[in-house]
Amino acid sequence: MISLNVNGKLVQADADGDTPLLWVLRDYLGMTGTKFGCGMALCGACTVHVDGKPARSCVTPASAVAGKKIATVEKIGETRAGKAVQAAWVAENVPQCGYCQSGQVMAATALLAAIPAPSDADIDAAMSGNICRCATYRRIRAAVKRAAKEAGMKTKEQA
Amino acid sequence: MNPILNLSRREFLKTSGGLALGFHLPQSWAQSGPGRTVSTDLANAFSPNAFISISPDNTVTVIVKHLEMGQGTYTGLPTLVAEELDADWSQIRAEGAPADAKQYNNLFWGEAQGTGGSTALANSYEQLRKAGAAARAMLVAAAAERWQVPVSEIKVSRGIVFSKNRRATFGELAADAAKQPVPADVKLKDPKDFVLIGKPAARTDARAKSNGSAIFTQDVRLPGMLTAVVLHPPRFGAKLKSFDAATAKQIKGVEQVVAFSTPATNGVAILAKDYWSAKKGRDALTAEWDESAAFRLGSSDIMNEYKNLATTPGLSARKEGDADAALRDAAKTLEAAYEFPYLAHASMEPMNCVVKLDGGGCEIWNGEQFQTVDQAVVAKLLGLDAGQVSIHQLYAGGSFGRRANPKSDFVLEAVAIAKATNGAAPVKLVWGREDDMRAGFYRPMYYHTLKAGLDAQGNLVAWKHVIVGQSILTGTPFEAMLVKDGIDGTSVEGAANLPYAIPNLAVELHSPKIGVPVQWWRSVGSSHTAFATECFLDEIAREAKKDPFELRRSLLGKHPRHRTALELAAQKAGWANSKKGVSRGIAVHESFNTVVAQVVELSRKQSSLSIERVICAVDCGVAVNPNIIAMQMESGIGFGLSAALAGAITLKEGIVEQSNFHDYPVLRMNQMPKIEVFIVPSKEKPTGVGEPGTPVIAPALANAILAMQGKSIRALPMSSQGVTFV
Question: Is pLDDT of B250 > 80?
Fold first, then answer.
């Protein structure tokens, strides 16, 4: 039995400790927003946040993240950056097949949390680990910038 | 011309006379399950035909007969309905149609349901507008009856039916509209009155695909379901001899280990409650294979065989004048040969399928691209009628052709595994990336030779093109229909219909049989013919000291669509004016009745090259959604660029050498160029956009390299030619 903190909730799964977090989320907890693409941390479709940092859940043993804060695409919209990113994704019509986009959204949200106004080089560095076979990259870039602007404006309004 | 499209055009003329409006709910429809994404109040819904359901809550659900795999069917097809219905875009929902070829056939394919050949929007253009217009007429009739006013006094705009001071929503009229007779014929709008067509309607699937709620095959979960992970033979053509499941069965969670065999695949399946347990079981399994009929050649062996074949006469795919004589008499001749590797589709969602067998029926959950073919093949394996195979449509995480498998490989495999377990539990077959990449059904390897003759004035007077490569259609259900006199149209499309005016022109084909399963891959034949023809034309221009754009233009007198797209791309790129530090390449190509021209701007960064910008012009008839057209051009360019830069599946003694994204690299964010898309204004019926952007980028890029360095790229991928990009 593994205990995990997923999206602020303590959950338990009857999985072996070596089971990757991806499969605990998908097969044990029924959270299928996080996707399986390669199983080798090569494509980024399985990206989640562990203590706020992007992590490839397909190669992260569940036992390694016990006690850490795990965030997934299902609830990332409840954070300011996540909400701005998802709204920007819709506004820019980013998704095509959409299968990689959960991972893209999680990578982008982590980027904005770390760098509120990322440059093109920052976007390349943070997002090049996430493959999109539909090549929605131009729109992802535009959406990251839009989200940065939106989130930034809200910060100002709140101040 | 695409042969599938050619056939279909004729079928379309035959079948497009009237709209079948008799609507009944297919049995699978009424069942709830992951295939149903919209909960519509069916009992009270107004369903005037098989494509529309208007519920009392004012939601208009458009039932989409084509797979949404990224190309935008769940937005484009509802746009056609919403236009004639005068619906408000915000009330539109999209839902995948069940497998039912009688109601949901691809009108270009006769009575077969399926998605491919960039036909989804093109074949639906009138059908769905008529469906929308019929529903509108019934809503108007219901309002006229309710308000006791003539139909002519009623207007509809953005989802509101009104007459003077009275108004009603579609939802308020739905129940009454359902009682109205279905109109026998409906008048479609004059295009000048279009409100939605031509505007960038937002994608209906963007939100669900940004918050993780969109359901793909990978996400289906049924009560008691087992996940199957498989062990395939290491070589194509090998058969399972024996296996030892003892260790695998000791893995916690593993429930069953079964052998399976279908006409397409065979191997051992490990079934467990979850993927990871099944995968651990698979890794612990040992098996022996009968390799007596296995394919054992390597890529270089195959290419050598192709090179030999190219020197012998092939079957004629096109012959005008006498190319051989004209080459003999030419003042100057040129020749070049081009090599193309196998390519994997490598969609983000590895192949998978969910199957439930019960009471003699078979229920499938799948991002389904080939309903009618899969139903027939599955029914045969199970000894059922095709009608007993129901399919729930889901989103597909990419496909690029792969999910329309000519042998139903992964669908049939899932069914065979469920059968081997006696239908004890629903089965979800999940291929890992390695299984997906090594399963074959690649874009075939090809070898092309081209010869050209110029007269004393430098005019192009002879062109001889020989193509060598496996036939995709031979051995598929389409062979009888689409392979004519030994010529597989998909091997020569883009070459046999070369648009350039050349008096002596010959295209020949060799279709050797090789034991590597092959399949259509985004843009099919054009994925190689565009490169060979457009690169060779630039070599000719260079030899004749002509501008590549002007040479093309001068040869396209009889092809105004090509010429217009070419001129638009050149104009937007500023072709006439040189740009410091930038070299340009241009290419134009027609596929699936759509013409695309692209200009690549290239610069040098130390020892590497950098793509500064791609300018893309497209003529796809009426632009139903310009934003989706731009997306598909961008996507096609990115996909084509992936293959051009580094895409190659290679074999060594019959074993596929690649397995995952580390050794089959694909385009990433930092490599994606800036792209500008321009649409040629047109009043013609829309043609497809899913594929035609793909084949043009590689030759445009190679031509830019030729312009910059004088270096011809004659084999792909470019990484194999020592060309690197930043």
Answer: yes
The pLDDT of residue B31 is 35
Complex ipTM value: 0.97
Range 674-713 of B in CB contact (< 8 A) with A: 674-675
Question: CATH code at A99?
Answer: 1.10.150.120
Size of interface A-B (CB pairs under 8 A): 180
Structure tokens at A11: 């959950």
Q: Chain B window 29-88: which residues touch A at a Cβ cutoff of 8 Å?
A: 68-72
Structural domain boundaries, residue A60: 2-71
CATH number of the B3-193 domain: 3.30.365.10
Residue-wise pLDDT tens digits, B573-587: 999 999 999 999 999
Would you call B670 and A23 a contact, using CB atoms and an 8 Å cutoff? no
| B287 neighbors B248 (Cβ within 8 angstroms) | no
The pLDDT of B276-281, averaged and rounded, is: 98
Q: Please report the residues numbered 71 through 130 in chain A whose beta carbons come closer than 8 angstroms to any beta carbon of chain B.
A: 72-74, 77, 86, 89-90, 93-102, 105, 123-124, 127-130
Q: Same domain for A11 and A29?
A: yes
Assess whether pLDDT exceeds 90 at residue B628: yes
Tokens coding B606: 């130390």
Residues A116 and A141 in one domain: yes
Mean pLDDT of A6-28: 97
- Give the global pTM: 0.94
Report the residue of A56, A97, A132 to disrupt the B interface, i.e. the one with the largest count of B CBs within 10 Å. A97
Residues of B in contact with A127 (CB under 8 A): 669
Is the pLDDT at B20 greater than 50? The verdict is no
What is the token pair recorded at B66? 């084509």
A34 to B350: CB separation less than 8 angstroms, yes or no:
no
Six token digits for residue B71: 């190309």
Verify that A150 and A113 share a domain, yes or no. yes
For CATH 3.30.365.10, the residue range(s) in chain B are 3-193, 217-293+351-430, 299-343+442-721
Last residue of a domain, one of A25, A40, A71: A71
How far apart, in Å, are the Cα atoms of A100 and each of A148, A156, B83, B115, B229?
21, 32, 31, 22, 22
Q: What is the pLDDT of residue A156?
A: 54
Calculate Rg over the CA atoms of chain A: 15
Same domain, yes or no: A54 and A105 = no
| Range B299-343+442-721 has CATH code 3.30.365.10 | yes
**Residues A81, A19 share a domain:** no
Angle between helix B526-543 and B694-709 (nearest 10): 30
How far apart (Å, rounded) are the C-alpha atoms in residues B38 and B59? 10
Q: What is the DSSP string of B30-89?
A: HS-STT--S---GGG-EEEETTEEE-TTS-EEEEE-S--SSS-HHHHHHHHHHHHHT--G
pLDDT tens for each residue of B547-557: 999 999 999 99
Residue B684 CB coordination number (10 Å): 12
Looking at beta carbons, which residues of chain B come within 8 Å of A27?
227, 273-276
Q: In angstroms, rounded to a whole number, what is the distance separating the alpha carbons of residues B648 and B716?
A: 8
What is the reported pLDDT for B482?
84
Domain B217-293+351-430 = CATH 3.40.50.300: no
Give Cα separations from B9 to B3, B12, B261, B703 (angstroms): 10, 5, 37, 34
Q: Which amino acid is at B195?
A: V
Using an 8 Å CB-CB cutoff, list chain A residues near B206: 89-90, 93-95
In B, minimum Cα distance to A33 occurs at B212
Q: Rounded mean pLDDT of chain B? A: 93
Q: Which residues contact B150 (CB under 8 A, 6 or more apart)?
A: B144
Residue B399's contacts (CB-CB under 8 Å, 6 or more residues apart) are A97, B67, B69, B70, B345, B347, B367, B369
Q: Kindly state whether A27 is in contact with chain B, defined as any CB-CB distance less than 8 angstroms.
A: yes
pLDDT in tens, B441-456: 999 999 999 999 999 9
